[in-house]
Amino acid sequence: MVGTTLACALGKNTKLANKTILLLEGSKQFQWEPKEQYSNRVVALNLNTKSLLSSIGAWNHIAAVRYGSVKSMQVWDAVSDAMIQFNQDDYLDNVAYIVENDLLLHSVNRELAHVQNVNVLYQAIVDSLKLPDVNSDTSKVLLENGKSFTCDLLLGCDGANSKVRKTMGVQYLSWNYNQMAVVATLKLAENVDDDHNTVAWQRFLPDGPIALLPLRKNLSSLVWTTTPNNAKTLLSLPEEQFVDEVNSAIWKEYPKRSIVSDVMKGFDRFLEILRLPSNAVRQLPPNVSGIEEGSRAAFPLGFGHATKYFKPGVALVGDAAHRVHPLAGQGVNLGFGDVSCLNEILGDAIYCGSVIEDVDNLRKYETERQRHNIPTMLAIDGIQKLYNTNLTPVVLLRSVGLQFTNALYPLKVTKKLYFINVYWYPSNRGI
């Protein structure tokens, strides 16, 4: 999705109209037709990503088919009464938009088909890469079928296992979380219309968060972060038992620590005195009645970040540069942010008479994106670690912190960066 969107954005950039762009796509040419049943592979798009897709014309195609609107969101802790809420009234637009991966890619491809200076080569499996050196200012890409190409600027959008990144030889910090995300399309017990199924729910359980995202009427998408053993068990359960486990995860009462409960009650009274929002008012999540057949799947979770996003004549974009935990749904949004930034910098550089491979432009891209990506990634990783323990002092700290953030509007708007989207899919194949 990120690589195709980048090719489309660069191709539609009028400042780059004299540049020839080649998109090497490893899979077959993508074909998609709308189906009644939703795909379990969805992304939660923030407002910046929606703006990017609108600017290249892809959002019109998405809107003409379907998407889920998140108009409010409730996040709460299973082992305390701490909670935070986001509402559409706090912002100028929806909190997030839920879109199927296939629909998004289909929509971008429809626009890409009309871009004259972009060529797409499908089933292009890269065999080896040769980057610029003292003997050559260009990169060379050799495919398994024997074809080769040279370019002034090579952009690696080839996922978490990026061959471009490995060829660059940059340091890549990574670790596994020893967690898996179980996904499915859920049927809700309540028979609601589209205007009412617009709430996203996320509950932090002792083993990881469970989240429900609205699709339409009585359908929502599930992402449940849990241990690998429990994930395998959940995938093997009969449908009725799986539904029971989902409802238990959403509704089950966990033992509360008395000291945490006492402090939270006292803090609520303090907020009420100050006439600030407390835990007293909260929405009740829906009950799940079933799942769409064949929609269950699971994938492992990890963290990864390249210390450098560029070398002369080459740059990394999306999952090739960074990978995050799905609890904040920022993985694909970070990638689309890379696209917006690189498209603007390259366009301005050419307009000002620079060459497209100029290292100063690539360094500017790296600086701007790392200033955004690194704090976001560290915050997400910190939240994962903060909620991955049940030590009483930590539970007390995170509970008071969450409730305090919910009470103060400016802080809550800032924190929206980390809670706005709760669903993420890595872009590497085979999931």
UniProtKB/TrEMBL annotation:
Residues 134-246, 305-371 form the FAD-binding domain. It is a peripheral membrane protein. Gene3D superfamilies: FAD/NAD(P)-binding domain. GO terms for cellular component: extrinsic component of mitochondrial inner membrane. The keyword Transit peptide applies. It is found in: Mitochondrion inner membrane. Its EC number is 1.14.15.45, 1.14.15.46. GO terms for molecular function: 2-methoxy-6-polyprenolphenol 4-hydroxylase activity; 4-hydroxy-3-all-trans-polyprenylbenzoate oxygenase activity; FAD binding; oxidoreductase activity, acting on paired donors, with incorporation or reduction of molecular oxygen, reduced flavin or flavoprotein as one donor, and incorporation of one atom of oxygen. InterPro entries: FAD-bd (IPR002938), FAD/NAD-bd_sf (IPR036188), Ubi_Hdrlase_CS (IPR018168), UbiH/COQ6 (IPR010971), UbiH/COQ6_monooxygenase (IPR051205), UbQ_mOase_COQ6 (IPR000689). Its cofactor is FAD. It catalyses: a 4-hydroxy-3-(all-trans-polyprenyl)benzoate + 2 reduced [2Fe-2S]-[ferredoxin] + O2 + 2 H(+) = a 3,4-dihydroxy-5-(all-trans-polyprenyl)benzoate + 2 oxidized [2Fe-2S]-[ferredoxin] + H2O; a 2-methoxy-6-(all-trans-polyprenyl)phenol + 2 reduced [2Fe-2S]-[ferredoxin] + O2 + 2 H(+) = a 2-methoxy-6-(all-trans-polyprenyl)benzene-1,4-diol + 2 oxidized [2Fe-2S]-[ferredoxin] + H2O. Pathway: Cofactor biosynthesis; ubiquinone biosynthesis. Keywords: FAD, Flavoprotein, Membrane, Mitochondrion, Mitochondrion inner membrane, Monooxygenase, Oxidoreductase, Transit peptide, Ubiquinone, Ubiquinone biosynthesis. Component of a multi-subunit COQ enzyme complex. FAD-dependent monooxygenase required for two non-consecutive steps during ubiquinone biosynthesis. Required for the C5-ring hydroxylation during ubiquinone biosynthesis by catalyzing the hydroxylation of 4-hydroxy-3-(all-trans-polyprenyl)benzoic acid to 3,4-dihydroxy-5-(all-trans-polyprenyl)benzoic acid. Also acts downstream of coq4, for the C1-hydroxylation during ubiquinone biosynthesis by catalyzing the hydroxylation of 2-methoxy-6-(all-trans-polyprenyl)phenol to 2-methoxy-6-(all-trans-polyprenyl)benzene-1,4-diol. Belongs to the UbiH/COQ6 family. This is Ubiquinone biosynthesis monooxygenase COQ6, mitochondrial. It comes from Agrilus planipennis (Emerald ash borer). The gene is LOC108735116.
